[in-house]
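Margin note: ligand = manganese (II) ion.
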Amino acid sequence: MTFVIPQPPQATVAVAGTPDRFPVRRIFCVGRNYAAHAREMGKDPDREAPFFFTKPGDAVVDSPCTVPYPPLTQDLHHEIELVIAIGRGGADIAPDAVMDHVWGAGVGIDLTRRDLQAEAKKMGRPWDWAKAFDLSAPMSPLVPLADVPSVDHGRIWLAVNGTVRQDADIADLIWPVRDHVAYLSQAMTLAPGDLIMTGTPAGVGAVVPGDVMTGGIDGIGKIEVTVGPRA
Ligand code: MN
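Resulting structure:
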């Protein structure tokens, strides 16, 4: 086969402890999956089924990294999240079978142009411009499932310039991994290479050029992202 333009490069994420790479297909993100964060965003966490938005696969960037402060925003926010990597596809996956489809896990930051998100919510518009910009998904190296102690509990935290802002436990997920991945698979056929960013705990906030975000999930990994000058 001959492509009529240069073939786009395959987006990939590092794999912990090896030179191997995980090829990325799509990035699904869960909205408001921790009750305290739902409340800080002005929503009642008891009333919602899980909902999703997406980022392009090539929004990923390996940690440690510097991400330029993106255009069109005055309010760039950090959201530390557990990342689930799908290794085997499927549709209508039962919750009990979800982990058979998971290749591994990692730590990501769902960078968010919060002012554009607030405007989109107000206008009833999609979230893409708030969420799906270039380099909006920094990732730790992914860890194969055999080396992941748990996707159900473990401290999740993020600090900016050494001051902890987000500090919770993935046990606090309203929709745990098995449940929200099963639910997602009812809407889309999941495929190898899909990543799921599983939502962020309370304590989201703004960063500015020069800030250094560090974070992690116990037993899974650490991430470090520096905010560069405006793109
Ligand atoms: Mn998020």
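The chain has a mean pLDDT of 96.
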